[in-house]
User: Which sequence fits this backbone?
């Protein structure tokens, strides 16, 4: 108990202090933004700029002085954001100064000289915004993703989440469940009287069934949001010397992998992150697959390649066009599909049908008559001449679009493992409540309360400091 009280007291002290930090990027820049938030923010304005009662949300050009020596440190813009109409919900201000390292350090030191002022911890501005009900947990997570977004579609998904796309959905379910719990508890309290409407329990059961179906549909989304957030794990597979590393270099537009005419050049896993049509692609080059090899290092490379395959969301299967062409002419009237089946079996990729796959016939420049190899599901490519690159990129982009979807406010996708866990637990509780609906309304109510608790964890209506520490651990100082 004393341990929890101590944590609460420390949090209270942290919240009472006024915090400051550099909110723009580190290093030399044209303009640096220094943010201040807390009860004594107005004191900072008065001591550093002489301003009293400034007009809110209006840029004012002022000389910025040290509170003790009154030395002019810089001249810049000052903005005042009185609470609760600020990002944190507290009194806040910003100093827009020149971005030199010495200028920024001098202003930070000046703020640090004021009583009860301290440097902000990572994510503390956003954490205060959460505690002051300016953001819920899903919006906080969306803000973190927005800061980390590297592609256009990632940015879109994160921005929609900061605007409450997921929050509105989860809070709608939570509001409906609160109402259902209240009705069930009322039914328990007044069951033996005539003061409760008939059929209220049946209506509750109908509401829960609808909610259960919506949550189940939300969970069965193919992990679209999670794939978009973390990147689609994509592995390049094929026999030795079919051009896997050349293909990676072509997509990277740089010599990321070593390429030689010698079979088995690639031994270890090589991974790069790419932006394909606005979607994040985590591309992995692997050792060539074959049944037998006397090379211990190559054996380990093959094991790692198959492990990467097991974890992959998308497979790029590479074949040698010349070998396909020769095989077809030696095995009439076989088709490219026949060769593919033999090739897949030879590589031991028996469950490839269960994965999204792009099939690439490389070295097409060595085959004079490609008509024999034509297939609408196959991409013909020459890594040497770069013919077929645009077709390959478009094909990969279509696969990524299918796997990740297109973010929208109307149909938001969850993108955190935490969301999936709580919704899965919520769904189990709803199922249990429906099982008890006709036999034991007290147990039904208890299962509904547990389901409500899991929805509360999602948006932060129910939370712990440990959970918040996990969510805020990757935030930068100044945000």
Assistant:
């Amino acid at each position: 108990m004393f341990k929890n009280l101590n944590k609460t007291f420390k949090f209270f002290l942290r919240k009472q202090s006024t915090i400051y930090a550099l909110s723009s990027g580190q290093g030399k820049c044209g303009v640096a933004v220094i943010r201040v938030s807390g009860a004594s923010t107005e004191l900072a304005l008065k001591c550093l700029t002489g301003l009293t009662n400034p007009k809110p949300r209006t840029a004012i050009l002022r000389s910025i002085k040290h509170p003790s020596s009154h030395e002019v440190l810089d001249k810049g813009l000052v903005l005042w954001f009185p609470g609760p109409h600020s990002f944190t919900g507290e009194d806040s201000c910003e100093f827009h100064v020149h971005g030199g390292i010495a200028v920024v350090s001098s202003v930070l030191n000046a703020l640090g000289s004021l009583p009860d002022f301290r440097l902000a911890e990572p994510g503390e501005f956003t954490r205060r915004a959460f505690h002051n009900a300016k953001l819920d947990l899903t919006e906080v997570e969306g803000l973190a993703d927005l800061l980390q977004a590297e592609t256009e579609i990632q940015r879109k998904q994160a921005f929609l989440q900061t605007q409450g796309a997921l929050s509105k959905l989860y809070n709608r379910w939570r509001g409906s469940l609160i109402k259902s719990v209240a009705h069930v508890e009322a039914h328990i309290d007044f069951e033996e009287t005539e003061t409760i409407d008939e059929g209220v329990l049946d209506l509750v059961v109908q509401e829960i069934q609808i909610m259960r179906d919506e949550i189940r549909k939300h969970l069965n989304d193919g992990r679209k949001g999670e794939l978009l957030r973390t990147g689609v794990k994509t592995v390049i597979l094929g026999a030795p010397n079919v051009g896997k590393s050349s293909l990676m270099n072509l997509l990277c537009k740089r010599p990321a992998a070593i390429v030689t005419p010698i079979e088995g050049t690639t031994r270890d896993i090589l991974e790069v992150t790419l932006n394909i049509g606005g979607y994040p692609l985590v591309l992995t080059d692997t050792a060539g697959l074959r049944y037998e090899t006397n090379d211990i290092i190559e054996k380990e490379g093959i094991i790692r390649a198959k492990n990467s395959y097991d974890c992959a969301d998308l497979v790029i299967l590479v074949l040698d066009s010349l070998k396909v062409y020769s095989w077809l002419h030696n095995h009439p009237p076989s088709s490219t599909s026949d060769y593919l089946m033999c090739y897949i079996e030879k590589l031991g990729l028996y469950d490839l049908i269960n994965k999204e796959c792009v099939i690439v016939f490389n070295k097409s420049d060595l085959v004079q008559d490609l008509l024999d190899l034509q297939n609408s599901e196959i991409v013909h490519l020459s890594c040497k001449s770069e013919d077929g690159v645009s077709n390959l990129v478009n094909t990969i982009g279509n696969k990524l679009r299918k796997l990740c979807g297109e973010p929208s406010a109307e149909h938001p996708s969850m993108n955190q493992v935490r969301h999936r866990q709580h919704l899965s637990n919520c769904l189990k509780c709803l199922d249990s409540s429906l099982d008890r609906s006709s036999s034991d309304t007290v147990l039904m109510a208890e299962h509904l309360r547990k389901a409500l608790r899991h929805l509360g964890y999602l948006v932060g209506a129910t939370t712990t400091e440990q959970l918040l520490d996990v969510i805020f651990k990757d935030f930068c100082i100044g945000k």
Remarks:
- Confidence is low (pLDDT under 50) at residues 1-5, 7-13.
- The chain has 17 helices and twelve strands.
- The first strand starts at residue 18 and ends at 22.
